[in-house]
């Protein structure tokens, strides 16, 4: 891990943009990818990390999630997004703590038709 200093615009006060110094430790591979992307785009590593954070926070992360349990056992779920609404009907939700870990690796799940979302 390599310490990396990031100056990121977090908010504005009275219309004036304020940057706050934030220190974090990044895995070397992420830092190397950041440097490569910065070189491609002709900017600094901080700009790439700031873009990545803006993309993360502007992506389709739910603004609110609402659930309602029905007498039939189904769970109705509404996910409110910035640009739409996602409805889900869930038949069963349970946590299993006694299971075979090898049956739930990425390879095992893919081989049984599961898709990572």
Describe the structure in your own words.
The structure is a single chain. This protein is α+β, with helices and mostly antiparallel strands and 117 residues long. The chain folds into 2 domains: 2-58, no CATH class; 64-111, no CATH class. Helices cover 29% and strands 37% of the residues. It has 3 helices and 5 strands. It has helices spanning 28-41, 45-58, 106-111; strands spanning 2-13, 16-26, 64-69, 75-81, 84-90. The strands form 2 sheets. A 3-stranded antiparallel sheet has the order 3-4-5, with no helix packed on it. Strand 4 (75-81) and strand 5 form a beta hairpin. Helix 1 packs across helix 2 (45-58). The longest helix has 14 residues, at 28-41. The protein is extended, with a radius of gyration of 21 Å.
| Straight-line N-to-C gap | 28 Å
SS-based structural class? alpha+beta
Which radius of gyration do the C-alpha atoms yield? 21 Å
* Strand arrangement in the largest pleated sheet: 3-4-5
- Hey, roughly how much beta strand do the residues contain? 35-45%
Low-confidence stretches: none
Q: How many H/I helices? A: 3
**Per the principal axes of the C-alpha atoms, what is the gross shape?**
extended
Q: For the residues shown, what is the average pLDDT? A: 81
Oligomer: single chain
What labels would you give this structure?
single chain, 117 residues, alpha+beta, 2 domains, 3-stranded antiparallel beta sheet, two-stranded antiparallel ribbon, 3 helices, 5 strands, extended
